[in-house]
Design brief:
Mean pLDDT of chain A: 79
Low-confidence stretches of chain A: 133-163, 376-395
Distance between the termini of chain A: 31 Å
Largest interface: A-B, 33 and 20 residues
Oligomer: heterodimer
Structural class of chain B: mainly beta
Largest sheet of chain B: 6 strands, antiparallel
Mean pLDDT of chain B: 82
Shape of chain B: elongated
CATH class of chain B: Mainly Beta
Radius of gyration of chain B: 19 Å
Number of domains of chain B: 1
Helix content of chain B: 10-25%
Radius of gyration of chain A: 27 Å
Helix content of chain A: 10-25%
Amino acid sequence: MSIYVKRVFDCKLRLSDGYTFDVSSFSANYALNGIPTAEVILPLGREFDTKLLSNSYSFLTSSFIDRPAYLYLSFLDNSEGVGLNPNISTGTYLVFAGYPSNVQYVKTADNLQLKVTLRHWLSDLDFASTLSAASHPSNPKTLICNPKLQFGGLGSGLGFALAGIAQSIINPTYAAANLWGNAIFPFLRQLVLADRVNNSLFGTGNDCLNRAVLRALSSWMYSILPLNIAALGMTGVQRIMDSLVGLLDQNSADQFVSELAGTTLWKKLLDFARQFLFTIVPFPLYYRVEPIVLGLSNFYTTIPASEILHITTVLDRPTVPTRAVGVYGSFTPLLGSAIDNPEEASIDLIGGWYISSSLGYGLVEVLQAPRFLSGPFEPAYFTRAAVGGITDKTPLMRSPALRDLGVLEVQKNATLAHYAVLDELAHYYYIVKQLSNRTAVVTCPFRMDICPGSTVRLALYSQEQIPFEDGYLYGMVDSINYSLSDGESPKTIYNILGVRNQAEFVHPDFSTVYHPFYGIYFIGGMHR
Amino acid sequence: MSAILTAKPGTITVIDYPDYSGVGIFSISGMSSNQAIILNRFVVTAKARHAVSYSLANVPYLYVFGTSLTDLDASFYLFPYNNCAESGAIYSFLEFVDGNLVSAYGSPRINVTVGGASWRGVIHQMQIESGVHQQSPQIVVGTIFATGNFL
C-alpha cells in the first residue's frame, strides 16, 4: 500500500513589520462573490525548554489591527514509493492575506486561547464608501464642494450635469471586447479617484489607509469579459453599452447617485456582477472577474478517489419540476401617448425560451430579463405593425386577422431578429433551476490547486468501491475551506454546487457550454 | 519477597551489600535517598504528533507535525517501616512531589537519567495508593506522571 507522508513543516502568521507568530490551528474560507475570512489560533504560555513567553501575547499588548498579515503553511514530502503529487500538500502555501480585525483572548481555570480573526484585503473595498463628488446626491448642485469636472462630467461654474460622465470613461467599442477591463473596472476606478469626501472636514479622503482601496480594486488578474456578440447581436451589445453609458444619465441618474451614496465599492461591484452575470473569484493575493456557468459541460480537473477523504452529495430534484423557462423584456414604443406616459405603454414580450427536451410536464415559468435588456427601445427594433407603423396601416382592433398577424410578427421579430440572447438566458436560468438542489461537500487532504468557480470532475470509483454510475460526478466549486486543526490532518473542503452525473453532464437540461452574455466561460484554475 | 512481606507487612530491611546496589538504570535528581523508597516500575512513552486519513480509494495520508513531549511515569514502593521503625518514606515522597510539581513556583524541572540518557521534564500529576498489595496493605505505591524530553 502506498502511503503519502507529509511533514507539516511550518505554519506562521506574519505581519508586515517583521512580527512572526507560530500558529496552532486555522480555518480560512473563500466563497464566490464573498470577502474571504480566516480565524487563527495562536499558542500562549511559555516555551518548554527556554521558558520564554510566547510572543503571541504581543497581540494583547500591541495594536495590530489593520496591519497587513499573511498566513503561510509549509509541507515537506517524505513519501516513499509513491510519485510526488504536487497537488496535495506540497511546498509552501500562502493561505490568506489580510488584516487582523478581531483578537479574542479566553482564559478560564483550565484553558487559554488566543484567536485572531483576519479580514481579507478585498474588504478594503467594503471599507470605502462610493461617496464621491459625482455620486453624492447633494454635491452635484453644491457650489461649495465644487465637484464639477473631476469625474469628467459636463459642468459649468454654476452647475453640474451627470450626463456624459460615463461616456468619458467607457468606449463602447473597447468595452464590447472586454466589459470588465474596459468598462466596469475603469468606472469603479474613477469612482475611487473622484473621491471627494471633504478632506478639510474628514482629515483624509475616503480612500484612506495608504490608498488601500485603489490597490485592492486594481488587484485583479487574468480577467477578460468579451461580450458574446453572436448571442447578443449588435442590438444587445448596444443595449449593454447604453446601460453603462447611461448609468448617470437622464431619469436613472437620481436613483443611481442615491444608490452610490448609500453603498460601498464592494457592494457596487456585486451589483455589477449580478446585473451582468459575472462572478468575483477571490484569491489570496488577487481576484478574478469571470463568466461562470453553473452547469458547465466541461471541467477543469479531476479529483480522483485517492484524493477524496470524504464526500456527501445531495442530488435532489426540484420540488416542482420546471418544464420551460421564458424570458421577457419590455419595450416602450416612443410614439404617440407613450412619449408622455411611457409606463402605461410599456409592453412585455417573451423573447426567449428554453423548453425541456425530456420533461413533458412541469411548471412553465417566465422571468424578466436584466434591466438593460428591457427599456425604451427604438421603434425600428420591432416591426412597424407593432408600434403602429409609420407608413403601413396600424393593425385594427376591429380586425382580428390583422391583429393576430401583428402579434405574430412582433413575436417572431422579438425572438429571431431581436435577441438570441434571451434564448441563452432562458437556458441559463433553466439550468440554474434544475441544479438548485444539487450540492456536494468534498473533503480532501490540504491542497490549493482548485479555485472557487472551477468546474471539477469527481472520480468516485475505485477498486474498493461500488461503482457509482460510471464513477463520475461533476460540479462547480462554490466555496472552499482550508483548515489545520490540532491532531487532525490539514484539510481542504470544497462546497460544490450544480452536481451532475455523467448522463446529465451532456444533457442540455442540465449542462451547457455557453454563457448568455460572454463569448468565453470560466472553467477553473489554481487557487495560488 | 512475598514471604518476607507476609511475615512483616509494610516492613523493609535494608541490607548493605555494595556489590548489589547501584544498578542505576533509573534515577531522579532531587528525590530523597530514603532507603525505604524503591523504584518499582517506570514507563517512558515517546510519541510523534501525527494524523492519518484514508481516501475513498484506501490511500493513507500520513501527516507528521513533529515530536511530542515524552511521557514518563514512575512508580515507587513506599515502605512505612524500616527495620520496625517509621521510615518517613511517604513524607519524603510527598515533599519531593510538592516541591517539584510543575505548578510550584518557578515551574520546576526534574532531571532523570534513564539508562544513561538524560531526560528533563515536569511532573504534572502524582498519585499515592495504599492497599495495592493484598498481602501487605501497608505498603504504599507512589506514582509520578511527568512530561518532558530527552536532552
